[in-house]
Protein backbone atom coordinates (compact mmCIF):
# COMPACT_ATOMS: atom_id res chain seq x y z
CA UNK A 1 0.00 0.00 0.00
CA UNK A 2 1.52 3.34 -1.02
CA UNK A 3 1.73 6.00 1.68
CA UNK A 4 0.30 9.51 1.44
CA UNK A 5 3.17 11.99 1.17
CA UNK A 6 2.55 14.82 3.63
CA UNK A 7 4.61 18.00 4.12
CA UNK A 8 4.27 20.07 7.29
CA UNK A 9 4.50 23.84 7.64
CA UNK A 10 4.59 25.07 11.23
CA UNK A 11 6.33 23.66 14.30
CA UNK A 12 4.17 25.46 16.84
CA UNK A 13 1.84 24.51 19.66
CA UNK A 14 -1.02 22.80 17.85
CA UNK A 15 1.36 21.03 15.49
CA UNK A 16 3.33 19.53 18.38
CA UNK A 17 0.45 18.87 20.73
CA UNK A 18 -2.22 17.32 18.55
CA UNK A 19 -1.58 17.05 14.79
CA UNK A 20 1.89 15.57 14.41
CA UNK A 21 1.30 13.07 17.27
CA UNK A 22 -1.73 11.88 15.28
CA UNK A 23 0.07 11.72 11.92
CA UNK A 24 3.03 9.71 13.22
CA UNK A 25 0.63 7.03 14.43
CA UNK A 26 -0.76 6.47 10.94
CA UNK A 27 1.01 3.67 9.07
CA UNK A 28 -0.19 5.04 5.72
CA UNK A 29 1.40 8.51 6.03
CA UNK A 30 4.94 9.48 5.06
CA UNK A 31 6.07 12.83 6.48
CA UNK A 32 8.36 14.09 3.71
CA UNK A 33 9.43 17.39 5.26
CA UNK A 34 8.92 19.97 7.98
CA UNK A 35 9.25 23.75 7.66
CA UNK A 36 9.35 26.56 10.22
CA UNK A 37 10.99 29.96 10.10
CA UNK A 38 12.28 29.57 13.68
CA UNK A 39 15.29 27.22 13.65
CA UNK A 40 15.00 26.06 17.28
CA UNK A 41 11.36 25.08 16.89
CA UNK A 42 12.13 23.38 13.59
CA UNK A 43 14.93 21.31 15.11
CA UNK A 44 13.04 20.35 18.27
CA UNK A 45 9.93 19.30 16.36
CA UNK A 46 11.89 17.36 13.73
CA UNK A 47 13.72 15.53 16.48
CA UNK A 48 10.55 14.75 18.43
CA UNK A 49 8.76 13.26 15.41
CA UNK A 50 11.86 11.87 13.66
CA UNK A 51 11.43 14.00 10.55
CA UNK A 52 14.56 13.87 8.37
CA UNK A 53 14.18 16.80 5.98
CA UNK A 54 13.78 20.27 7.46
CA UNK A 55 13.40 23.65 5.77
CA UNK A 56 13.00 27.31 6.68
CA UNK A 57 11.48 28.11 3.27
CA UNK A 58 8.20 26.33 2.54
CA UNK A 59 8.36 26.87 -1.23
CA UNK A 60 11.76 25.13 -1.30
CA UNK A 61 10.31 22.28 0.77
CA UNK A 62 7.41 21.79 -1.64
CA UNK A 63 9.77 21.78 -4.65
CA UNK A 64 12.18 19.30 -3.07
CA UNK A 65 9.79 16.89 -1.36
CA UNK A 66 6.92 16.59 -3.86
CA UNK A 67 4.09 16.08 -1.31
CA UNK A 68 0.44 15.22 -2.06
CA UNK A 69 -0.90 17.06 0.97
CA UNK A 70 0.31 19.91 3.16
CA UNK A 71 -0.49 20.87 6.75
CA UNK A 72 -0.28 24.64 7.25
CA UNK A 73 -0.50 25.24 11.00
CA UNK A 74 -0.17 28.85 12.03
CA UNK A 75 -2.29 31.76 13.24
CA UNK A 76 -4.93 33.04 10.81
CA UNK A 77 -3.22 36.29 9.85
CA UNK A 78 -0.14 34.38 8.62
CA UNK A 79 -2.07 31.76 6.69
CA UNK A 80 -3.55 33.13 3.47
CA UNK A 81 -0.52 33.50 1.16
CA UNK A 82 0.75 30.03 2.03
CA UNK A 83 -2.64 28.39 1.47
CA UNK A 84 -3.07 30.12 -1.89
CA UNK A 85 0.44 29.06 -2.95
CA UNK A 86 -0.20 25.42 -2.02
CA UNK A 87 -3.59 25.39 -3.77
CA UNK A 88 -1.94 26.86 -6.87
CA UNK A 89 0.45 23.89 -6.73
CA UNK A 90 -2.69 21.67 -6.72
CA UNK A 91 -1.87 20.29 -3.28
CA UNK A 92 -4.42 19.08 -0.74
CA UNK A 93 -4.42 21.36 2.30
CA UNK A 94 -5.20 20.99 6.01
CA UNK A 95 -5.37 24.13 8.19
CA UNK A 96 -6.39 24.91 11.75
CA UNK A 97 -9.39 27.05 12.55
CA UNK A 98 -10.16 29.84 11.85
CA UNK A 99 -9.88 29.50 8.07
CA UNK A 100 -8.49 33.01 7.56
CA UNK A 101 -9.24 36.30 9.22
CA UNK A 102 -12.52 36.92 7.42
CA UNK A 103 -15.10 35.29 5.16
CA UNK A 104 -13.60 36.84 2.02
CA UNK A 105 -10.29 35.04 2.60
CA UNK A 106 -12.05 31.72 3.26
CA UNK A 107 -14.18 32.20 0.14
CA UNK A 108 -11.15 32.90 -2.07
CA UNK A 109 -9.40 29.83 -0.68
CA UNK A 110 -12.52 27.73 -1.27
CA UNK A 111 -12.96 28.95 -4.86
CA UNK A 112 -9.35 28.21 -5.75
CA UNK A 113 -9.53 24.78 -4.11
CA UNK A 114 -12.62 23.95 -6.14
CA UNK A 115 -11.05 25.23 -9.36
CA UNK A 116 -7.88 23.17 -8.81
CA UNK A 117 -9.74 20.13 -7.44
CA UNK A 118 -7.85 20.25 -4.16
CA UNK A 119 -9.16 18.48 -1.09
CA UNK A 120 -9.19 20.79 1.92
CA UNK A 121 -9.92 20.62 5.61
CA UNK A 122 -10.35 23.12 8.43
CA UNK A 123 -9.59 21.77 11.89
CA UNK A 124 -12.99 21.92 13.51
CA UNK A 125 -12.10 18.95 15.70
CA UNK A 126 -15.22 19.27 17.81
CA UNK A 127 -17.16 17.64 14.97
CA UNK A 128 -14.94 14.59 15.47
CA UNK A 129 -14.93 14.20 19.25
CA UNK A 130 -15.98 10.57 19.81
CA UNK A 131 -18.53 11.50 22.52
CA UNK A 132 -20.20 14.19 20.39
CA UNK A 133 -20.32 11.99 17.31
CA UNK A 134 -21.99 9.14 19.23
CA UNK A 135 -24.52 11.45 20.92
CA UNK A 136 -25.42 13.21 17.66
CA UNK A 137 -26.10 9.89 15.96
CA UNK A 138 -28.53 8.91 18.72
CA UNK A 139 -30.39 12.23 18.67
CA UNK A 140 -30.53 12.35 14.85
CA UNK A 141 -32.25 8.96 14.83
CA UNK A 142 -35.15 10.59 16.72
CA UNK A 143 -35.02 14.02 15.04
CA UNK A 144 -33.34 17.13 16.49
CA UNK A 145 -35.63 19.81 17.92
CA UNK A 146 -33.26 22.06 19.90
CA UNK A 147 -29.51 22.33 20.41
CA UNK A 148 -27.09 24.47 22.36
CA UNK A 149 -23.39 25.19 21.90
CA UNK A 150 -21.93 26.55 25.14
CA UNK A 151 -18.34 27.81 25.15
CA UNK A 152 -17.02 29.99 27.96
CA UNK A 153 -13.60 31.04 29.22
CA UNK A 154 -12.01 33.19 31.88
CA UNK A 155 -9.86 35.40 29.63
CA UNK A 156 -8.31 38.81 30.04
CA UNK A 157 -5.49 38.55 27.53
CA UNK A 158 -6.47 41.46 25.29
CA UNK A 159 -7.52 41.32 21.64
CA UNK A 160 -6.57 38.08 19.86
CA UNK A 161 -3.19 38.23 18.11
CA UNK A 162 -2.94 41.94 18.98
CA UNK A 163 -6.26 42.56 17.26
CA UNK A 164 -5.59 40.66 14.00
CA UNK A 165 -8.79 38.74 14.63
CA UNK A 166 -11.68 38.64 17.11
CA UNK A 167 -12.77 36.09 19.70
CA UNK A 168 -15.87 34.90 17.86
CA UNK A 169 -14.09 34.35 14.52
CA UNK A 170 -10.94 32.88 16.01
CA UNK A 171 -12.04 30.81 18.96
CA UNK A 172 -15.76 30.80 19.81
CA UNK A 173 -16.10 29.73 16.16
CA UNK A 174 -15.84 26.18 17.54
CA UNK A 175 -19.30 26.63 19.07
CA UNK A 176 -20.66 28.35 15.94
CA UNK A 177 -19.41 25.48 13.79
CA UNK A 178 -20.83 22.88 16.19
CA UNK A 179 -24.23 24.61 15.95
CA UNK A 180 -24.16 24.22 12.15
CA UNK A 181 -23.00 20.63 12.53
CA UNK A 182 -25.90 19.84 14.86
CA UNK A 183 -28.59 21.90 13.13
CA UNK A 184 -27.77 21.96 9.41
CA UNK A 185 -28.52 24.80 7.00
CA UNK A 186 -29.22 28.15 8.66
CA UNK A 187 -32.46 30.03 8.02
CA UNK A 188 -32.64 32.92 10.52
CA UNK A 189 -30.40 34.44 13.18
CA UNK A 190 -30.98 36.85 16.07
CA UNK A 191 -28.16 37.79 18.40
CA UNK A 192 -26.82 39.91 21.23
CA UNK A 193 -23.07 40.63 21.08
CA UNK A 194 -21.35 42.77 23.68
CA UNK A 195 -18.03 43.96 25.08
CA UNK A 196 -18.08 43.78 28.87
CA UNK A 197 -15.21 45.69 30.51
CA UNK A 198 -13.10 45.47 27.32
CA UNK A 199 -12.52 47.27 24.01
CA UNK A 200 -13.35 44.07 22.10
CA UNK A 201 -16.45 41.84 21.98
CA UNK A 202 -16.36 39.09 24.57
CA UNK A 203 -20.00 38.04 25.10
CA UNK A 204 -21.95 36.34 22.34
CA UNK A 205 -25.57 35.16 22.45
CA UNK A 206 -27.44 33.93 19.39
CA UNK A 207 -30.58 32.05 18.48
CA UNK A 208 -30.38 30.29 15.13
CA UNK A 209 -33.36 28.79 13.29
CA UNK A 210 -32.39 26.01 10.91
CA UNK A 211 -34.05 25.01 7.64
CA UNK A 212 -35.08 21.75 9.35
CA UNK A 213 -37.17 23.73 11.86
CA UNK A 214 -34.80 22.95 14.72
CA UNK A 215 -33.51 25.87 16.78
CA UNK A 216 -29.97 26.35 18.10
CA UNK A 217 -28.62 28.56 20.88
CA UNK A 218 -25.11 29.94 21.11
CA UNK A 219 -23.92 30.89 24.59
CA UNK A 220 -20.32 32.07 24.47
CA UNK A 221 -18.46 34.48 26.67
CA UNK A 222 -14.90 34.99 27.79
CA UNK A 223 -15.51 36.47 31.25
CA UNK A 224 -16.75 33.58 33.40
CA UNK A 225 -15.27 31.27 36.03
CA UNK A 226 -13.35 28.80 33.84
CA UNK A 227 -13.11 27.24 30.38
CA UNK A 228 -16.04 24.95 29.63
CA UNK A 229 -17.19 23.63 26.26
CA UNK A 230 -20.41 21.67 26.05
CA UNK A 231 -23.21 20.93 23.64
CA UNK A 232 -26.80 19.86 24.16
CA UNK A 233 -29.05 18.14 21.65
CA UNK A 234 -32.73 17.58 22.35
CA UNK A 235 -35.04 15.49 20.18
CA UNK A 236 -38.23 13.50 20.43
CA UNK A 237 -37.86 11.44 23.62
CA UNK A 238 -34.13 12.11 23.92
CA UNK A 239 -31.78 14.66 25.50
CA UNK A 240 -27.99 14.56 25.17
CA UNK A 241 -25.70 16.66 27.38
CA UNK A 242 -22.12 16.42 26.13
CA UNK A 243 -18.88 17.80 27.52
CA UNK A 244 -16.72 16.32 24.75
CA UNK A 245 -13.54 16.26 26.79
CA UNK A 246 -15.22 14.94 29.96
CA UNK A 247 -18.44 12.91 29.67
CA UNK A 248 -21.88 12.68 28.09
CA UNK A 249 -25.26 11.92 29.64
CA UNK A 250 -28.14 10.79 27.47
CA UNK A 251 -31.68 10.64 28.84
CA UNK A 252 -34.36 8.71 26.98
CA UNK A 253 -38.11 8.22 27.18
CA UNK A 254 -38.73 9.80 30.58
CA UNK A 255 -36.40 7.41 32.42
CA UNK A 256 -34.85 8.97 35.52
CA UNK A 257 -31.40 7.44 34.99
CA UNK A 258 -29.30 8.73 32.13
CA UNK A 259 -26.72 6.77 30.19
CA UNK A 260 -23.31 8.14 31.19
CA UNK A 261 -20.24 7.72 28.95
CA UNK A 262 -16.79 8.97 29.86
CA UNK A 263 -14.75 10.70 27.16
CA UNK A 264 -11.79 8.39 27.68
CA UNK A 265 -14.00 5.33 27.18
CA UNK A 266 -15.53 6.69 23.97
CA UNK A 267 -12.06 7.59 22.65
CA UNK A 268 -10.48 4.37 24.00
CA UNK A 269 -7.68 6.61 25.26
CA UNK A 270 -6.94 9.13 27.99
CA UNK A 271 -4.91 11.29 25.56
CA UNK A 272 -6.52 14.69 25.02
CA UNK A 273 -5.78 14.72 21.27
CA UNK A 274 -7.85 11.56 20.92
CA UNK A 275 -10.64 12.56 23.33
CA UNK A 276 -11.01 16.01 21.75
CA UNK A 277 -11.31 14.72 18.18
CA UNK A 278 -7.94 15.75 16.70
CA UNK A 279 -6.86 12.18 16.01
CA UNK A 280 -10.15 11.41 14.25
CA UNK A 281 -10.11 14.62 12.19
CA UNK A 282 -6.59 13.87 10.96
CA UNK A 283 -7.64 10.32 10.13
CA UNK A 284 -10.61 11.74 8.19
CA UNK A 285 -8.33 14.05 6.16
CA UNK A 286 -5.91 11.27 5.24
CA UNK A 287 -8.77 8.88 4.37
CA UNK A 288 -10.34 11.54 2.14
CA UNK A 289 -7.01 12.10 0.35
CA UNK A 290 -6.72 8.35 -0.20
CA UNK A 291 -10.26 8.11 -1.55
CA UNK A 292 -10.12 11.46 -3.41
CA UNK A 293 -13.21 12.52 -1.49
CA UNK A 294 -13.93 15.99 -0.07
CA UNK A 295 -13.75 16.30 3.75
CA UNK A 296 -16.75 17.34 5.86
CA UNK A 297 -15.00 20.55 6.97
CA UNK A 298 -13.66 21.53 3.54
CA UNK A 299 -13.10 25.21 2.76
CA UNK A 300 -16.49 25.63 1.04
CA UNK A 301 -18.18 24.27 4.14
CA UNK A 302 -16.00 26.50 6.35
CA UNK A 303 -17.29 29.51 4.38
CA UNK A 304 -20.74 28.70 5.79
CA UNK A 305 -19.41 28.74 9.35
CA UNK A 306 -17.67 32.07 8.71
CA UNK A 307 -20.92 33.41 7.22
CA UNK A 308 -22.78 32.37 10.36
CA UNK A 309 -20.19 34.27 12.42
CA UNK A 310 -20.90 37.33 10.23
CA UNK A 311 -24.65 36.90 10.64
CA UNK A 312 -24.29 36.71 14.43
CA UNK A 313 -22.51 40.09 14.34
CA UNK A 314 -25.09 41.62 11.99
CA UNK A 315 -28.30 40.28 13.56
CA UNK A 316 -28.30 42.18 16.84
CA UNK A 317 -31.65 42.28 18.60
N1 LIG B 1 -8.51 23.62 17.20
C1 LIG B 1 -8.23 24.12 18.37
O1 LIG B 1 -8.83 23.78 19.39
C2 LIG B 1 -7.14 25.14 18.47
C3 LIG B 1 -6.56 25.44 19.72
C4 LIG B 1 -5.54 26.40 19.76
C5 LIG B 1 -5.14 27.03 18.59
N2 LIG B 1 -5.74 26.72 17.40
C6 LIG B 1 -5.37 27.39 16.16
O2 LIG B 1 -4.20 26.81 15.63
C7 LIG B 1 -3.52 27.75 14.82
C8 LIG B 1 -2.05 27.66 15.14
O3 LIG B 1 -1.87 28.03 16.47
P1 LIG B 1 -0.53 27.63 17.26
O4 LIG B 1 -0.75 28.10 18.65
O5 LIG B 1 -0.18 26.21 17.02
O6 LIG B 1 0.51 28.58 16.53
P2 LIG B 1 2.03 28.81 16.90
O7 LIG B 1 2.27 30.27 16.84
O8 LIG B 1 2.42 28.06 18.13
O9 LIG B 1 2.79 28.10 15.69
C9 LIG B 1 2.84 28.62 14.41
C10 LIG B 1 4.20 28.29 13.82
O10 LIG B 1 4.20 28.65 12.45
C11 LIG B 1 5.46 29.19 12.14
N3 LIG B 1 5.35 30.00 10.93
C12 LIG B 1 4.69 31.18 10.78
N4 LIG B 1 4.80 31.61 9.52
C13 LIG B 1 5.55 30.70 8.86
C14 LIG B 1 6.02 30.57 7.53
N5 LIG B 1 5.75 31.50 6.60
N6 LIG B 1 6.75 29.50 7.19
C15 LIG B 1 7.04 28.56 8.11
N7 LIG B 1 6.63 28.61 9.39
C16 LIG B 1 5.91 29.67 9.76
C17 LIG B 1 5.85 29.98 13.39
O11 LIG B 1 7.25 30.21 13.45
C18 LIG B 1 5.35 29.06 14.49
O12 LIG B 1 6.35 28.14 14.94
C19 LIG B 1 -4.17 29.10 15.12
O13 LIG B 1 -4.97 29.49 14.04
C20 LIG B 1 -5.05 28.87 16.32
O14 LIG B 1 -6.23 29.61 16.30
C21 LIG B 1 -6.71 25.79 17.34
UniProtKB/TrEMBL annotation:
Annotated GO MF terms: nucleotide binding
- Residue ranges of every copy of the Gfo/Idh/MocA-like oxidoreductase C-terminal domain listed in the record: 171-316
Gfo/Idh/MocA-like oxidoreductase N-terminal domain segment(s): 4-124
Enumerate the Pfam families for this protein: GFO_IDH_MocA (PF01408), GFO_IDH_MocA_C (PF02894)
Which residues are the signal sequence here? Answer: none
Q: What is the protein's name according to its record? A: Gfo/Idh/MocA-like oxidoreductase N-terminal domain-containing protein
